[in-house]
Design goal:
The structure holds two protein chains of two kinds. By secondary structure, chain A is of the alpha/beta class. Chain A folds into three domains: 78 residues; 192 residues, 3-Layer(aba) Sandwich (Rossmann fold); 69 residues, Arc Repressor Mutant, subunit A. Chain A contains 19 helices and twelve strands. Chain A is elongated, with a radius of gyration of 24 Å. By secondary structure, chain B is α/β, with parallel strands linked by helices. Chain B is built from 22 helices and 18 strands. Chain B has a five-stranded parallel sheet. Chain B is elongated. The chains are: A alpha/beta, B alpha/beta. The interface between A and B is medium-sized, with 29 and 35 residues.
Chain lengths: 380, 512
């Protein structure tokens, strides 16, 4: 198959270590990607003597072979993997504003969504998030994506996964930036999400297919999450959390940092609360983010209809149902709590909760524990 | 001269008749015993000869041969001592020749001629009586237990000399009459449901379990009260019926676990083996198999606390008995069948440290958590109808007045629900809703169209598996029985959906 020369020369650059800083150093030494591609072996060896061991340089130069590189690109295409580089039209424009943008990105899915949206938000947070955190992340993601904001996250467990899920549920566009090779679904818990994003969103990675990932690759990819975004929303973060790395990177890159406040003393929110102390924007509703992203007036225009909760049903609850419903909130409450608060029997409580659940007003997060589904209402 | 008397051995939880033959002939003084004997039976020769001498009788210095037949059954234990002694005395002509054809003789001898109790008397007497034996000579300590068999004439003795007097007609001994245990003897110190604060959901779940004999899994952090609640369970289980009582008492008699008073077991057994238990201790085993924990829990509760800590092999052996209600053990000499129709109540912590998902206290990695829960195998979980998640009672609830229903009043409702089931399944082999299987479900459980739609919706949404539907139907039937409904109501069905064993995730990770 015929591949454009630009594709091939960037793929050639990908043959060196998958490290953006190193790659750009190499490019600087050679005087740009075109010069690198055109130069002879001797020239290559002389120019890169500062950067590369001569033996490595010779090995590398041996790969500067159109047949070899096209074959590789063919295999990638068969596997549904494509590549992006700064000159590529689909390369996220926003990412070029950081000081170490990846010279080569691998993707699966639809790269056109990257530049389709005016604004982009990274939603990150703890892997060990609680129900509240996950629900908030889901809600914000679906609300913002319905208002034409691109949602970026890292496909990790907890908040990341919840953000992707919320976005897909709202039929929005979502990008997952992986810390492993693009063809390695990780973590295993989000395997299904991985395939869904491949189909309906975009998976990105700066690591070549098959690259196993390591402890350093995940913090590195965080710069891409914040780099693509105009702002980063930290939902829950522990004291020493990867999400705080993302927030730091976002600040370095001149991005806004939003944080969800937590209760004082809550382990899962120590990081968020500290961010707020340091000047991050305190966020309790998606409007807060929209306002900051677009300004008040522009935001008003973008105010889309919330998917209407079953307001009819909610307004026509029987007295006891109303009482039970009022006990349920964003934090899970147990059947026993409801029995005590409403002074009703187990059977009664269960059947009322079942009816509320069928009407879509409450949701069972684990056996016997309920939260409300209308988060917009709860955080208003 | 030759003589033959009847004794018995235990096989499984039943008895099997053993004839003790003795022959006294001229020759060098010897005492030979044959008939596939274990060493404890072989040693009987010493006990018997000494006991006879110490009862004031001299055996003639002749060649004595004793045979225990049928000779192809391995004989073990000391139950034959008394029969051996009597047959020797008969053969030697030292007691008048009387007919002992319809008399079964059981008991161990001491060197001083005393008669000591043995295990399994009820099983042996029960079996003998059904085979047409009318009179039983047993150790006096076992007399009450043996007299449980209605119609059998049981004579209890504590010395060999007393037996001889009885046979010679010198003493007038009346058959032991069984008296039901007084309240005092059966009273127990079980914790009562009314003592437990909060945990209403759990109490309700256990009530349903007790009413339909459903297996239960309780999942929750350490200290949430799982064990405490399980210990309350016997208090709400219905009393044993007479038939069940006999079954249970036989098992305990064979295992030698019957209380000294030798009365019929009235309360449902509650067995809580420690998690280090081996699979043989659970199923029963040994060279001469004895009933294991699951048989001792027959008609009652087998409580497995810390379920994931049990050896995998020990848990897997539960599968077949949970399905069939019996356990078959094959050994070289024979294979035995023990009843094992128990209600499994299992409790499990969510992780090795016990505090997941409370991350303030739990430092287990997600991998450890899922590995821990992965120890519960699918096939075992499949046989559990009810699953409940337990959380520690909140401070408020803890200091409120305990105002719960008492165990006694819950038990009344459970008994009523059981009664409905007994009537419903009168012509069937099953007794409880939990035993309803495929075909019978269709016969006994009718759902309205709207209810079927409700279940159908759950199946379509992936909430419920095909097996899950059956589970929900069985549970709904029990809940309807508890509320005295002839047809399953909508509330019954929603409650069944709530309590069923499903795959709802534990906070933070998808498990089970």
């Amino acid at each position: 198959m015929n591949h454009s020369k630009t594709d091939l020369m960037h793929l050639f650059l990908g043959e060196v270590e998958p490290d953006a800083l190193f790659q750009s150093k190499l490019l600087r030494a050679c005087g740009g990607i075109h010069a690198l591609w055109e130069m002879s072996e001797d020239e290559f060896l002389t120019k890169t003597v500062e950067v590369l061991h001569p033996e490595t340089a010779m090995e590398l130069y041996a790969k500067r072979d159109v047949g070899f590189l096209s074959g590789k690109l063919d295999r990638y295409e068969q596997a549904g993997i494509g590549i992006l580089y700064p000159e590529h039209p689909a390369y996220p424009a926003q990412l070029l504003t950081i000081h170490d943008p990846p010279e080569l990105l691998y993707y699966k899915g639809n790269p056109d969504i990257l530049n389709r949206h005016e604004r982009c938000i990274g939603i990150v947070g703890a892997r060990e998030a609680d129900t509240y955190g996950r629900e908030i992340a889901t809600y914000f993601a679906s609300n913002l994506s319905r208002r034409d904001v691109l949602i970026v996250s890292g496909l990790a467990k907890g908040i990341d996964g919840a953000a992707h899920t919320g976005c897909l549920a709202a039929d929005g566009d979502t990008v997952a930036v992986l810390g492993t090779g693009i063809d390695i679904p990780s973590p295993r818990e989000n395997l299904r999400l991985y395939f869904e994003i491949e189909e309906r969103g975009l998976l990105l990675s700066e690591y070549p297919p098959g690259y196993p990932g390591g402890i350093y690759t995940f913090p590195r990819r965080n710069r891409i999450i914040s780099g693509i975004s105009h702002g980063v929303f930290v939902v829950q973060a522990r004291e020493r959390s990867g999400s705080l790395i993302t927030a730091d990177l976002a600040l370095e890159q001149g991005r806004q940092v939003y944080a969800l406040p937590g209760r004082a003393g809550d382990d899962r929110s120590v990081g968020c609360n500290r961010l707020i102390k340091q000047g991050a924007l305190l966020v309790t509703t998606p409007d807060d983010i929209m306002e900051d992203l677009f300004g008040v007036s522009a935001m008003e225009k973008r105010r889309t209809e919330e998917v209407p909760a079953d307001t009819h049903r909610k307004n026509n609850l029987a007295p006891l149902e109303k009482k039970v419903y009022s006990c349920v909130g964003l934090d899970p409450v147990s059947v026993d709590d409801i029995i005590r608060a409403c002074k009703i029997g187990v059977t009664g409580a269960i059947s009322i909760l079942y009816r509320l659940e069928q009407s879509g007003l409450v949701k069972q997060v684990r056996r016997g524990w309920y939260i409300i589904t209308d988060i917009a209402e709860a955080i208003k | 001269m030759f003589s033959k008397v009847l004794s018995s051995a235990v096989a499984g939880v039943s008895g099997t008749e053993i004839y003790v033959e003795a022959d006294v002939s001229d020759g060098l003084p010897m005492f030979t015993m044959v008939g596939y004997l274990s060493s404890s039976v072989r040693e009987a020769s010493e006990r018997v000869r000494t006991a006879i001498r110490n009862s004031g009788i001299m055996l003639p210095p002749k060649r004595i041969t004793v045979n225990l037949s049928p000779a192809d059954i391995r004989k073990d234990g000391t139950v034959f001592d008394l029969a051996i002694a009597l047959s020797c005395l008969l053969a030697a002509g030292l007691v008048p020749e009387i007919s002992l054809d319809r008399t079964m003789i059981l008991g161990e001898l001491g060197l001083d001629g005393s008669i000591k109790p043995v295990n399994g008397v009820l099983s042996m007497v029960h079996h003998g009586y059904s085979d047409g034996i009318t009179d039983f000579i047993v150790p006096s300590a076992n007399a009450r237990e043996a007299a449980i068999v209605d119609g059998a004439r049981v004579f209890g003795f504590s010395r060999l000399s007393e037996v001889l007097e009885f046979i010679e007609g010198k003493a007038n001994v009346r058959p032991t009459v069984y008296e039901a245990a007084s309240e005092e003897e059966t009273s127990t110190d079980l914790p009562d449901f009314s003592e437990i604060r909060g945990q209403e959901m759990l109490k309700r779940g256990l009530t349903i379990a007790a009413a339909g004999f459903h297996n239960v899994l309780m999942l929750g952090a350490a200290g949430a009260g799982k064990s405490m609640l399980a210990k309350c369970l016997p208090g709400i289980l219905p009393k044993l019926t007479f038939q069940e009582s006999i079954e249970v008492t036989k098992i305990y008699s064979v295992s030698g676990l019957l209380p000294d008073t030798g009365t019929l077991m009235k309360n449902r057994p509650f067995r809580a083996p420690h998690h280090t238990v081996s699979e043989y201790a659970l199923t029963g085993g040994g060279a001469i198999p004895r009933p294991g924990e699951i048989s001792l829990a027959h008609n009652g509760v087998l409580f497995l606390d810390e379920l994931p800590e049990f050896k995998k092999s020990a848990l897997e052996v539960l599968r077949q008995p949970m399905e069939d209600g019996v356990i078959r053990i094959a050994r070289v000499q024979a294979s035995y069948t023990y009843p094992a129709d128990f209600m499994l109540v299992a409790a499990a912590n969510p992780c090795p440290c016990g505090y997941y998902p409370d991350r303030k206290r739990c430092r287990c990695t997600p991998r450890m958590v899922s590995a821990y829960q992965g120890k519960l195998s699918g096939p075992l979980l499949d046989r559990i109808d009810i699953r409940m998640e337990v959380t520690a009672v909140s401070g408020d609830a803890l200091f409120e007045e305990a105002s719960g229903e008492t165990s006694e009043s819950i038990r009344m409702r459970v008994e009523a629900a059981r009664k409905r089931q007994e009537e419903r399944y009168a012509g069937e082999k099953i007794r409880f809703n939990s035993q309803l299987s495929g075909k019978m479900l269709g016969t006994y459980i009718r759902l309205s169209d709207s209810q079927e739609e409700m279940l159908h919706a759950c199946v379509t949404s992936g909430d419920l598996s095909a097996r899950g539907v059956y589970r929900v139907m069985r549970l709904a039937r029990t809940i309807a029985d508890l509320s005295d409904h002839d047809a399953i109501g909508d509330e019954d069905l929603t409650e069944a959906l709530f309590f069923r064993n499903s795959n709802l995730p534990i906070e933070g990770s998808v498990i089970l």
